[in-house]
């Protein structure tokens, strides 16, 4: 149903239309507070981000020195968040942890005294089981009206909900990745040892919003849902892990993410619902008319991991940290080939789950 | 054979632009050489014996000069006193006037306009002979109204087109189009190519009452909006009331479009056929019983799928887009004073993209009309109509493969009595009963893999009773009034369920606390009220007048469409407990002046409309598969205002018009929080706010049946929303859009040309039309949509050009 207008619009576009970039200048919604975070049935820490919207293509300006509380309404438990980096607040989850059927919300007090809260969310009681598997394929992109194909790894899930449930359930998948990055094998002149690899974290296909609702469907199973698509690059020269988080969420949370999906991936056509600012579940306690963006989510979450090995990639990229022309003459290589911790979100510490799933 | 040499497109564009700018100048020059002519001069009575205060009656009969047959339905105008009448079934007429010199002008379709110079100093009976318009039958401006009607009529904001006007407009894909022709008139616009319907003075599509032979139409478009639902071969004339709407009409707050199809000929058979690159048509009419019973049958059908096959894309090749429509009407004369007709219209549209999704919609409309002349001063017009509009969307892909079906049934009975109880009074009174019943929204699985649960959502039923009376009369020679009053009473009736909400100001699914079930026919909610209609004309001199109009209208049925352009699958929803009827108060003021014996018509009209309870939508409203639509709607205030400048050349080798419209349309949604708070309760431009609109539409005739025509159109871009900032939701970058409609898409400019060559084959009456739509191949922005380029996180704005190229077409028309 949700793709109805989207499909009609793009059919028209394909049949008759042509498109060109255009610059539009709208007004409003700059300088608005954003509160974004979640609690789940996974162990902490849990994170909340605070910031003010700035402008297009600019990250929100962080809001520091706020007091944020996570509250379990059913157990009357409270735990505070602490600011780790500007605008990022972390709660260890030592006191409050997500429990199915419990209700949670947060309160936020800014340094100027203004207070905010999220509407309580009750963690759903059911979580489905996922079978996760990769497929090697291609994706197309039009560059200067010419179709260019890229080799990709696609991550799919087959989902089975527990049988006997007649309620509607709402799910979302998020996918993160960790890949091993092997440096140019230049022996350490002191120890003679080969440098150890880095493990680089990232988010796979963050703008893909993978949602599923069983509302008005007879099926309690959904097969072959594409949850992430990743271009094949040097990150697949060694083992590449995908972590798939399946979250059962509330209907309000589902609608929130559905609206994000509409804005990111299907928006603005003549037959589309007009785009608009998204209303979440956070609000001001100080001024009921103040607009606030964001959502504090409470979800029942599980995770599954899969590994993609180099032998599975039929069209590998040229190993750029090992070039026969340069051998082990390291200055010829990019710096990350001999100092891999320069890569964003990389570490030399082997994740404790690596190859154990 | 035409041959195109290599050319510089910029030079061509400059040349065409020069032509466009030069043509009005040529037009003015051509107009300067016109001169008047009388077919006969008559002196009746003796001037020295006439009494200055005595009204003399001029009786007469209008006959064909060729065969002597009387001509019923001819329009007879006595100028200066603006006495307009129509010949009866016996071809007779009578008018009264004080002694003086007059022009008696007689017009009838297919006959040359005949003007008698009358010196009226006594009562008399005259015979007016009209000649067949053999010389210019195809190309003259056949006007079914007085030449100075625009100045002398008491009501404002009326536009009339007859089918010959419409056929002169450069066609898209070779098809003369009623709606596209209307969009060339001041105050009438559209969201763009591919949009259903039209917008009048900043109003919405559903605020136009569209009628075919008096029956309501719920969708006026075919084939993705590129063709209108009206077959030009059976259409006789089109009247658009956009300012002051007579009391006979009601039910919409913006305008009334009254499309009348012609009756079949009672004397002999005729046939018309046309074939173009995307569609064909055929119409036949003639007598079943000569001079007693006639029939007309017309049909159009598309074969546009072959065009899709030319596209170098497998999905498009496998797509299908087609439509057909069918008109049939039987007319029967009952004696000399009664004529009845039974007409039927059916249409069907089908669109499927590749082997994937698509939609289908269709209309059935039956109308019975009986027109009677009860006495010399009283006429009756009875009509009963029944219609059904149904639409469905299907998508057979995957587990959520779905079929959604909606529809609306409509029945209306109407009786209008026209009378002239006193001299110079033209009164109408009548009663109208309508019933709207929406089909339940049916949702079913589509495709073998679908896991969708079959279900249906009940929809509302409403009935509307209206009574009205109006009178058009002169106060004196300078001042003429039209005054009317309409009363409407509406009931939302069962069967139905009305939900109760814990917070009436925040109606959401989660705030439903209870519901009340109503049985079939049980009254759920009543609405009603008076609708005054008033218009006045003050004549400053014989060629100049000032008019003022005011009317109030109520609307009990709405098109629920939360998109810039209505789609065929939008819902029709009647007023109910929570959806109050829309009301509109329309004010208009105009200055009208004709020049050179009505060869030139000019006017400037201002308008202001205040609307209440307009249907607006909360952010991200979900309208399909929803049995409590009130949770998605908000009701808004509206105001529209503007001015229309119109210059038209009526006669001569060059005809056409230049219009400029300044039009604004704003909406305000008071109160509300969250998704119900639209632009913080401030006024904002509606989707149809297009401030500037310039149209130049011209036709040049060449000899017998050949012509060249062109349209030049400029409009401001319509409002849209734009991305202004962003934030992170989890790991996804979330765009934040501006307040609603604070940005604007680029302006729209288009030039169309058309060349019609008549008498291609001498044995038959035919013509060949070459046309180019969007000659500049300009990529006009029809809409703006957002798409993420490559792997960029935020969507970027792209303008969508539905027709980004010049579209040539060729059509062959033949008639017997």
List keywords for this structure.
heterodimer, A: 357 residues, twelve-stranded mixed sheet, 22 strands, 41% strand, B: mainly beta, five-stranded mixed sheet, 6 helices, disordered N terminus
Q: Can you characterise this structure?
A:
The complex is a heterodimer of chains A (357) and B (816). Chain A has 357 residues and is mostly beta strands. Chain A is built from two helices and 22 strands. The longest helix of chain A has 15 residues, at 251-265. Chain B has 816 residues and is mainly β. Helix content of chain B is 6%, strand content 54%. Chain B contains six helices and 52 strands. In chain B, strand 19 and strand 20 (293-302) form a beta hairpin. The longest helix of chain B has 23 residues, at 9-31. Chain B is globular, with a radius of gyration of 28 Å. The model of chain B is unreliable at 1-36 and 134-144 (pLDDT under 50). Chains A and B meet through helix 1, strand 1, strand 2 and helix 2 of A and strand 45, strand 46, strand 47, strand 50 and strand 51 of B.
Q: On the 0-100 scale, what is the average pLDDT of chain B?
A: 85
Shape of chain B: globular
Succession of helices and strands of chain A: HEEEEEEEEEEEEEEEEEEHEEEE
Helix content of chain B: under 10%
Total beta strands of chain A: 22
- Major sheet attributes of chain A: 12 strands, mixed
What oligomeric arrangement do these chains adopt?
heterodimer
Which stretches of chain B of 5+ consecutive residues score pLDDT under 50?
A: 1-36, 134-144
Which spans of chain A of ≥5 residues are poorly predicted at pLDDT below 50?
1-10
Q: Counting H and I runs of at least 4 residues, what is the number of helices of chain B? A: 6
Rg from alpha-carbon coordinates of chain A: 23 Å
Put simply, the count of helices of chain A is 2
Q: How much of the sequence of chain A is in beta strands?
A: 35-45%
Q: How much strand of chain B?
A: over 45%
- Cα-atom Rg of chain B, whole angstroms? 28 Å
- Class by helix and strand content of chain A? mainly beta
Instruction: Let me know the average pLDDT of chain A.
Output: 86
SSE class of chain B: mainly beta
């Amino acid at each position: 149903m949700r793709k109805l207008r989207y499909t009609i619009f793009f059919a028209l576009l394909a049949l008759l239309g042509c498109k060109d970039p255009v610059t539009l200048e709208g007004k409003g919604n700059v300088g608005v507070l954003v509160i974004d975070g979640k609690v789940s049935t996974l162990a902490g820490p849990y994170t909340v981000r605070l910031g003010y919207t700035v402008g297009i293509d600019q990250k929100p300006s962080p809001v520091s020195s706020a007091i944020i509380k996570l509250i379990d309404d059913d157990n009357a438990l409270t735990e505070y968040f602490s600011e780790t980096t500007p605008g990022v607040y972390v709660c260890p989850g030592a006191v409050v942890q997500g429990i199915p059927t419990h209700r949670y919300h947060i309160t936020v007090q800014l340094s100027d005294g203004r207070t905010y809260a999220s509407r309580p969310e009750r963690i759903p009681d059911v979580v489905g089981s996922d079978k996760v598997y990769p497929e090697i394929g291609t994706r197309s992109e039009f560059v200067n009206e010419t179709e260019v194909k890229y080799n990709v790894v696609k991550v799919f899930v087959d989902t089975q909900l527990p049988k006997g449930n007649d309620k509607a359930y709402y799910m979302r998948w998020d996918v993160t990745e960790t890949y091993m990055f092997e440096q140019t094998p230049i022996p350490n002149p002191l120890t003679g040892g080969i440098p150890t690899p880095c493990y680089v974290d990232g988010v796979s296909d963050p703008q893909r919003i993978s949602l599923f609702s069983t509302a008005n469907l007879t099926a309690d199973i959904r097969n072959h849902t594409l949850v992430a698509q990743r271009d094949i690059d040097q990150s697949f020269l060694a083992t590449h892990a995908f972590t798939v988080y399946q979250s059962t969420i509330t209907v309000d949370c589902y609608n929130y993410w559905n609206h994000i999906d509409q804005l990111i991936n299907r928006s603005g056509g003549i037959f589309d619902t007009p785009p608009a600012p998204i209303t979440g579940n956070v609000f001001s306690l100080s001024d009921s008319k103040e607009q606030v963006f964001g959502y504090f989510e409470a979800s029942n979450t599980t995770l599954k991991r899969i590994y993609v090995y180099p032998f599975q990639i039929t069209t590998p990229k040229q190993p750029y940290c090992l070039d026969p022309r340069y051998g082990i003459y390291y200055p010829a290589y990019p710096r990350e080939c001999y100092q891999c911790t320069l890569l964003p979100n990389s570490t030399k510490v082997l994740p404790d789950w690596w190859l154990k799933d | 054979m035409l041959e195109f040499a290599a050319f510089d497109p910029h030079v061509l564009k400059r040349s065409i632009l020069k032509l466009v700018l030069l043509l009005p100048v040529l037009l003015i020059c051509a107009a300067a050489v016109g001169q008047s002519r009388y077919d006969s001069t008559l002196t009746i009575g003796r001037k020295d014996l006439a009494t200055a205060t005595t009204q003399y009656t001029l009786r007469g009969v209008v006959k064909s000069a060729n065969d002597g047959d009387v001509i019923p339905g001819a329009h007879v105008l006595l100028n200066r006193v603006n006495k307009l009448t129509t010949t009866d079934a016996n071809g007779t007429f009578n008018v009264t006037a004080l002694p003086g010199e007059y022009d008696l002008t007689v017009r009838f379709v297919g006959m040359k306009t005949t003007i008698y110079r009358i010196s009226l100093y006594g009562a008399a009976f005259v015979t007016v002979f009209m000649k067949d318009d053999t010389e210019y039958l195809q190309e003259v401006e056949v006007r079914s109204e007085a030449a100075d009607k625009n100045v002398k009529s008491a009501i404002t904001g009326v536009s009339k087109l007859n089918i010959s006007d419409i056929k002169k407009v450069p066609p898209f894909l070779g098809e003369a189009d009623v709606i596209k022709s209307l969009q060339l008139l001041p105050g009438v616009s559209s969201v763009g190519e591919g949009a259903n319907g039209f917008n009048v003075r900043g109003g919405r599509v559903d605020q136009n009452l569209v009628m075919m032979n008096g029956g309501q139409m719920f969708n006026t478009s075919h084939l993705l909006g590129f063709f209108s639902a009206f077959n030009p071969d059976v259409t006789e004339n089109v009247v658009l009331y956009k300012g002051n709407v007579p009391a006979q009409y009601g039910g919409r707050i913006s305008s009334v479009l009254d499309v009348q199809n012609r009756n079949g000929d009672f004397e002999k058979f005729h046939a018309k056929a046309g074939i173009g690159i995307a569609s064909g048509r055929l119409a036949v009419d003639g007598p079943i019983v000569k001079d007693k019973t006639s029939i007309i049958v017309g049909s159009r059908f598309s074969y546009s799928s072959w065009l899709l096959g030319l596209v170098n894309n497998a999905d498009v090749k496998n797509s299908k887009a087609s439509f057909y429509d069918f008109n049939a009407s039987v007319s029967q004369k009952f004696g000399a004073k009664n004529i009845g007709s039974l007409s039927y219209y059916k249409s069907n549209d089908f669109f499927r993209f590749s082997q994937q999704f698509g939609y289908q919609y269709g209309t059935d409309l039956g109308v019975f009309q009986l027109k009677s002349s009860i006495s010399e001063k009283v006429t009756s017009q009875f009509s009963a109509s029944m219609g059904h509009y149904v639409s469905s969307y299907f998508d057979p892909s995957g587990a959520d493969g779905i079929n959604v079906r909606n529809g609306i049934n409509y029945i209306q009975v109407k009786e209008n009595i026209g009378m002239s109880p006193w001299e110079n009074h033209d009164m109408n009174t009548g009663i109208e009963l309508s019933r709207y019943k929406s089909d339940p929204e049916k949702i079913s699985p589509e495709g073998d893999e679908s896991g969708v649960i079959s279900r249906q959502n009940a929809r509302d039923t409403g009935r509307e009773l209206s009574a009205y009376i109006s009178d058009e009369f002169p106060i004196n020679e300078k001042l003429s009034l039209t005054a009317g009053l309409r009363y409407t009473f509406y009931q939302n009736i069962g069967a139905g369920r009305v939900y109760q909400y814990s917070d009436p100001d925040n109606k959401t699914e989660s705030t439903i606390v209870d519901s009340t079930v109503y049985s079939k026919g049980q009254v759920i909610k009543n609405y009603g009220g008076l609708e005054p209609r008033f218009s006045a004309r003050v004549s400053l001199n014989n060629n100049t007048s000032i008019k003022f109009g005011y009317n109030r209208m109520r609307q009990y049925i709405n098109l629920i469409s939360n998109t810039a352009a209505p789609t065929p699958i939008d819902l029709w929803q009647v007023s109910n407990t929570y959806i109050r009827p829309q009301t509109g108060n329309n004010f208009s003021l105009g200055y009208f002046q004709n020049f050179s014996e009505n060869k030139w018509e000019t006017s400037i009209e201002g308008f202001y409309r205040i609307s209440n309870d307009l249907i607006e939508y909360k952010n991200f409203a979900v309208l399909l598969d929803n049995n409590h639509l009130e949770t998605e709607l908000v009701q808004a205030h509206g105001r529209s205002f503007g001015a229309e400048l119109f210059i038209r050349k009526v006669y001569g080798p060059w005809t056409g018009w230049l219009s400029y419209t300044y039009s604004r349309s704003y909406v305000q949604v008071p109160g509300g929080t969250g998704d119900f708070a639209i632009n913080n309760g401030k006024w904002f431009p509606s989707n149809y706010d297009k401030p500037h609109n310039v149209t130049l539409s011209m036709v040049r005739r060449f000899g017998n049946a050949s012509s060249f025509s062109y349209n030049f159109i400029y409009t401001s871009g319509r409002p849209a929303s734009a991305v202004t900032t962003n934030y992170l939701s989890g790991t996804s970058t979330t765009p934040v859009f501006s307040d609603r409609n604070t940005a604007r898409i680029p302006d729209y400019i288009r030039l169309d040309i058309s060349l019609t060559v008549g008498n291609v084959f001498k044995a038959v009456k035919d013509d060949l039309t070459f046309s180019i739509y969007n000659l500049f191949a300009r990529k006009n922005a029809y809409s703006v949509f957002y798409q993420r380029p490559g792997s960029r996180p935020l969507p970027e704005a792209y303008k969508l050009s539905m027709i980004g190229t010049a579209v040539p077409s060729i059509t062959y028309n033949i008639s017997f």
